[in-house]
Amino acid sequence: MALVNGWLPPTRNNFEFIMLCWNFYPLMGSLQWLTSWYSMGKTSTKSVFNIPGRVAWFTMEIPSILTIVYTMNQLAGKDGIANLPWQNKILASMYILHYVYRAVLFPFIQPSMSPIHVVVWASAITFQITNATCIGSWLAAYGPTTQAEWHAQGFSMLRFGIGLVTFGIGLSSNYLCDEELREIRRKEQRRQAKLADQGKKGVEKHYSVPNNGLFKYMLYPHYFMEWIEWLGFWIAGGWSCAPARAFLLAEFFAMLPRAVSGKKWYQEKFGEEKIKGKYAVIPGIW
Asked: Where is the signal peptide (predicted)?
């Protein structure tokens, strides 16, 4: 049963229209260059429209899993998902694996999470549903759905393997970067608890410059490694996998201005000397 007739899941014509629009998302992401407001990070503002961080994050990320599973189940041919080529199943599993971490595990293993504004929350839900619809539709119906179609598009086991390895490196590195940031918060929580035991009052928020691992070289390596992750997904899917390409570009143009803005915040907060030699997000370039 279609949730939105002709659109969720989409017909082929509607899929092509959604993809056409989705290719322009980088223009929307680039609008962040025009504002100093960092909507989900260190300069987020207090507002009556904020949603508690864990609740907001889970509910705005989980549609990615729900949408791709629903879309693929609805669009797969008469023999269903079970009859799709193994490439399609692995690519879908890669996508779901990422979001099991980002949507399900991430918000609940964070020591703390800042509130997220309802506009950011709604925008993220729109992003996730659109992206998962495009990728799920391509995997289930509008991309290659037989081995013959995969090979007609120049399928290579070597390329697929390189894509898998690249994706795995990006995902694991992204987790390790997140873990470094979590450890900073854990240390601060322990410090705050110690102050409380001594009858002293700590600060409401504490920030420090991460310096371990990839943080030695850049301030937002978790962004960079997420780009590597989705580059691997695109490599595995093949250069003709338009939804994977669109997803990578959407992430790049949405996250780059955040990282550059975040570096300015670090400079203002800690001084140039504290972050000397660190790039924002692209080593040797930016």
From this structure: none
